[in-house]
Amino acid sequence: MPADHPLLHRKNVILSPHIAGLTKESQARIACLVAEEVLKVLEGKKSMLVVNEEET
What we know:
By secondary structure, the chain is mainly α.
């Protein structure tokens, strides 16, 4: 967010960083998901994590 963003100057707004992905549990879930997707690709299947499909 730019330093001059209007929300930064509002008295009725509280901003905080998003840290939900930093728990041990979420990191374990992410690791399992990525491992499963790597296995799919190695088996010649399509990964749901592809974001640049036109280049693959």
